[in-house]
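Quick start: what a row looks like.
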Amino acid sequence: MERFASFDGTGIAYLTAGPADGRAVLLLHGFAADHRLNWVMPGVVDALVSAGHRVIASDARGHGQSDKPRDPSAYEGDAMARDARGLLDHLDLDEVDVVGYSMGSMVSSRVVPDEPRTRRLVLGGVGGGLVTGTLPRANVADGLLADDPTTITDPTARAFRAFADSTGADRHALAAIQQAGVVRTGTRLGEISVPTLVLVGDKDTLVGPPEPLAAAIPNASIRVVKGDHLSAVSDPDFPQAIVDFLA
């Protein structure tokens, strides 16, 4: 993993793979995951490299091998979107495809309207909740900070706590992300002008149906693979859908 210092000095770790002259693809992972869980283990990085792409897969602040501040203010001001744009600047890229999953898709949807270097966009693991701004957030921080996970009653909070525990994530940093001021995600979807793929699991009930999201983006299509919010990335059709769309 390589690192760069983002706008506020936070260290952001990132992986590069594939030919230096390949078409660049930026991968932004989901909450409580990292580049390895969302992109390496499911075979997305290998599939893209095999197709001739240059892959850049970062760990978001608070995750993986990047710095993990525990102050909610470190995640405000759309910090993750600024990190993504800073990484593109750091690598001196003039064109890039952007692929997100869950939280990474929320970040991607805020990066692309202001990023003329974007060629195509994949929004994985998101649906109508991105349009309404009602993606689940309440109680997640409390669940992450609970001393005894058996006391967590909210099903979404319980699921994220179990996932964070299984990956050895910094629960305090993740809680700070949830406590940070909310950036309204759905307000600029209509400004996304590049071809966009909404890529979801057929059993992903967490984020809402994909149709309202695709309808809110001028040039969007939908692809459905098998799985729920956590398992859809493991369907072999998931990396293939990304490769097909970016081709």
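That is the whole record. The first strand starts at residue 2 and ends at 5. The chain is about 35% helix and 20% strand.
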